[in-house]
Amino acid sequence: MELNQRQKLILATLKTNQDVQIDHLAEQFEVTTQTIRRDVNQLCEQGLARRVHGGVSLPTALTNTSYRFRTGVESESKDSIAMAVARAIPEGATIMMGIGTTVTRIAQYLLAKPSLRVITNNLQVARILEANEQIEVYLAGGLLRREHQDLVGSSVVKFFSDFEADIGICGCGSITSSHFAMEHEQVEADLSKAIITNSRESWLVADASKWDRCAALKVASLNSFDRVYTNNRDLPEELSVHLIEDTTSA
Fold first, then answer.
1. For 85-124, what is each residue's pLDDT tens digit?
2. pLDDT band, very low/low/confident/very high, at 68 (cuts 50, 70, 90)
3. DSSP β-ladder status, 241-243 and 227-230
4. What CA–CA distance (Å, rounded) separates 193 from 170?
5. How far from 212 is each of 71, 100, 110, 173, 188, CA to CA, in Å?
6. Are 106 and 82 spatial neighbours (Cβ–Cβ below 8 Å)?
7. Order of strands, edge to edge, in the sheet holding 174-175?
């Protein structure tokens, strides 16, 4: 039986996530849970997926074990932030996507969007979005960091400078009490600065745990971002914060 486009995209999501809730898939593809269950049942009948409690997973033999770098990516707060960002991106936009697990989650929710152009150094973003033929993906070349699944270096900064994006999406290593986005390594800070410089709008994604961490290299102050997507409620009103409800505290 030939797979429909949505089933192909479901499989692409599973290859990144390993398991996904039915409700999340229904939201991602903007269809009913009944429609998703029909798709999933057909995938299971062909041995391409297996049902788990409340969701669906890859068969054990097909599970990709190269995702150990994604520690914490399954948290509900990151997932909610990623979903909100993806919904806000208009069709036909050119977007830059940097490093980080939340940025990778955003790619999963962009799968159902037609006619996007994505510029990235994030290998997982590229692997996810290749499943949608209507999304153009431009992948930078540079030094491969296996543990982070990205490419870094001066060639990546130059690559980003050759484009002008509608929206640039950055994660960060930490955020200071004086509201500065920070990174752990110079190559990471340089990359985020290149995205900000070469995008008409820059969006920061940062869950509340970023305020409990420490990193040494400045990227930009939060007020320099056009939007800050976070579940941290304790931020000044003058910042352009898009507050995401933290379902983990409910």
1. 999 999 999 999 999 889 999 998 998 888 999 999 999 9
2. very low
3. parallel
4. 9
5. 17, 17, 29, 10, 19
6. yes
7. 174-175, 180-183, 217-221
